[in-house]
Amino acid sequence: MSSPATRYPLHRLSGQFQDPGQEAAYRLDIEPRVRLESSVALCVAALIFAMFAISDYHFVGLSLELTLLLAMRLVVAAACLTLAFVLRRQGSYLRHAWLHALPLWILATAIILIVPLRPESLSTQVSGVVVATMAFYLLIPNLIPVVVAASLYMGLGFMGAALMVAEIPAALALRLMLVLVMTNAVGFFALLRLETLQRTQFALLQEERVQNQQLTEEISRRRSLEAQLRSLAERDALTDLDSRSHFMQRAGELLRRAQVDRAPFSLFMIDADHFKTINDTWGHSQGDRVLAAIAEACRRTLRPQDVIGRFGGEEFIVALLDTHPKDAQVIAERLRQRVAALSFDDDMPGHRLAVTIGVAGVVDEATDLGTLIQRADQALYAGKRGGRNRVEMSQEA
Q1: Which residue, 79, 154, 181, 273, shows the most beta carbons closer than 10 Å to its own?
Q2: What is the number of other CB atoms lying within 10 angstroms of the CB of residue 68?
Q3: What one-character DSSP code corresponds to residue 120?
Q4: What is the pLDDT of residues 345-387, one digit of tens each?
């Protein structure tokens, strides 16, 4: 399996995704965090920058330079606080990258301007530049190219001001240059590592989300397939009645419940009369329509709680809970009449539909479903022998 760096390549110097779409997605994802961190960092920077007015007074006393320093610090602090408010509301690497860059340039310019106004404090200002450089890289969220540009501008501007105003010796200037170069190098590689790690983590999370989505879709697909398979196993495709196996399961549960509750339980078998003649004369498609019509007649005649199944071929079976065999005989007769009233004169001229029904009921608590079906089947065939198109009661019902 390929690594995230291979699947989502990053630029070696900027740490950004090479794919613009992936980079845009990352920036959009971190936008809330960047807004908060930027606003907090700028508020802290404004506070610290303003607090150094105390050191200004220590170095220059009451003078024009102090006035200029205080004015500059006030403007910079106000600008930082304003930008903190603006960034908190609409800061975005994606849409307003320049807005995030602006505070760095303001702070860098202010730090450079301190040199001509306080040249005698150059040694302490070097520490300030080092701290500010690290803050640019690690504390104020920004893109690496922006941070590098602002840090170089601050470092070069500070060096230029120090050479022109403070007139430092060449050896000191070289040491100062090395310190600033080293500070920028450390900050750059620290930020590059951080940006790389954050984007790699984002890529892994994105990949995990995609995999989770695919897994969820696969689970849904499998559940749908299981439901379809269950439906195929439980329902007869032609009549939409219970399949034989599903009927046996449901009817068995009803029979056990009836025996526990000592409630009456009845069952009848239904067989379409002369069904072979229908298939041989008008075709199997017409036979299928006849079976579907009988199934619909069963649904219309019986109660919702009654269990109806297709037992096989042209045979149907019905289980009736809380129904005495005598009552079941009445229901079966009503069903027989409903089927007899079905008209297929246009499709099968001269042929009238008819069914024979065998009814059986529970005799004792030891009666099982198989025995009950056998009794109803025997009654059915007795009805067939007796002339068809009739309801026949089991002798043991």
Answers
A1: 154
A2: 15
A3: G
A4: 777 887 889 999 999 998 677 788 999 999 999 999 999 999 9
The residues that are catalytic are 314
Assess contact for 203 and 8: CB atoms under 8 A.
yes
Asked whether the beta carbons of 118 and 164 are under 8 A apart, the reply is no
Cα–Cα distances in Å, from 45 out to 56, 91, 259? 17, 17, 84
* Residue 373 near residue 317 (C-beta atoms within 8 A): yes
Q: In what order do the strands lie in the sheet with 265-272?
A: 307-312, 315-321, 265-272, 355-361, 391-393
**Cβ–Cβ contacts within 10 Å for residue 53, how many?**
16
From the CB of residue 359, how many other CB atoms can be counted at a distance below 10 Å?
29
CB-count burial class (<10 Å; 0-12, 13-18, 19+) for 167: exposed
pLDDT digits (tens, 9 = 90+) for 89-126: 887 777 888 888 999 999 999 999 998 888 888 888 89
- Listed as own residue / partner, the contacts of 90-96 with beta carbons closer than 8 Å and 24 or more positions apart are 91/31, 91/34, 91/35, 91/38, 91/39, 92/27, 92/28, 92/31, 92/34, 92/35, 93/27, 93/30, 93/31, 93/34, 93/143, 94/24, 94/27, 94/28, 94/31
Q: Which two tokens stand for residue 46?
A: 């404004």
Structure tokens of 193? 């590592």
Q: How many CB atoms lie within 10 A of CB 71?
A: 10
Q: Is 287 helix (H, G, I), strand (E, B) or coil?
A: helix
Closest of 311, 293, 198 to residue 245, by C-alpha: 311
Q: Which of 38, 147, 135 is nearest to 91 (CA)?
A: 38
CA atoms within 13 A on the CB side of 235: 11
Q: For residue 250, which amino acid is it?
A: R
Strands (E) in the chain, as ranges, are: 265-272, 307-312, 315-321, 355-361, 391-393
DSSP state of 243: P
Single out the residue of 342, 327, 348, 349 nearest to residue 389, CA to CA: 342
pTM summary value: 0.60
SS3 at position 68: helix
Q: Where are the domains of the chain?
A: 4-212, 244-393
User: What tokens appear for 83 in the block?
Assistant: 């930008």
